[in-house]
Q: What sequence folds into this?
């Protein structure tokens, strides 16, 4: 308004001059920029994997207690040593595998990358565990092998191979897209193996 002029009614809002060629950003562009800055987690099943990790760590802790109290009675029987390692290693493996997708998700990877990388880690970890188990069983004395259940050992073999197959299926995405359910059941298998061996370590004592 010019000086000395009289204004009537409500004061007018000040509109700054707009340069030529400039256009206001669309709402879709603002939303996409906001979503990039605030990426939501693609791991909606983090609670299930955290529970799996907690159970696995608890099993490893109970196995450690058995080791501490078993040491007081002298040296371990070869069967007990085989069973303790058979319960401790799979439980730690299950805890590690449960936390792998959580860590990859926190690192900002996409969902498909999270499950592919996690499944590849699972296949590698279970493969190494299976080989080490067979090597340790091969070096047991013949009388100790007679104490161990062959049926249960073969069942564990099938369970490990099934988990490895599920991991490969999830990693390659040949038949189905990589998903959390397949990985969860595959990561659950070493916990089942470790818990079963732990129960036999406590309640089924070697007789030789």
A:
């Amino acid at each position: 308004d010019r000086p000395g002029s009289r204004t009537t009614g409500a004061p007018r809002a000040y509109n700054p001059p707009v340069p030529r060629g400039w256009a206001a950003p669309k709402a879709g562009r603002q939303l996409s920029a906001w979503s990039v800055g605030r990426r939501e987690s693609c791991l909606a099943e983090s609670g299930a994997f955290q529970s799996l990790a907690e159970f696995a760590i608890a099993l490893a802790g109970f196995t450690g207690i058995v080791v501490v109290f078993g040491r007081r009675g002298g040296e371990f029987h070869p069967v007990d040593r085989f069973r303790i390692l058979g319960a401790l290693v799979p439980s730690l493996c299950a805890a590690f595998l449960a936390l792998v997708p959580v860590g990859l998700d926190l690192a900002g990877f996409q969902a498909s990358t999270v499950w592919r990388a996690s499944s590849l880690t699972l296949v590698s970890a279970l493969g190494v565990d299976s080989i080490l188990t067979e090597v340790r069983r091969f070096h047991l004395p013949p009388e100790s092998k007679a104490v161990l259940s062959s049926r249960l050992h073969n069942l564990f073999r099938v369970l490990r191979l099934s988990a490895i197959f599920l991991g490969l299926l999830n990693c390659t995405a040949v038949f189905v897209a990589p998903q959390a359910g397949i990985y969860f059941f595959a990561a659950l298998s070493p916990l089942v193996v470790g818990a079963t061996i732990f129960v036999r370590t406590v309640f089924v004592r070697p007789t030789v």
In short: Residues 27-39 have pLDDT under 50 and may be disordered.
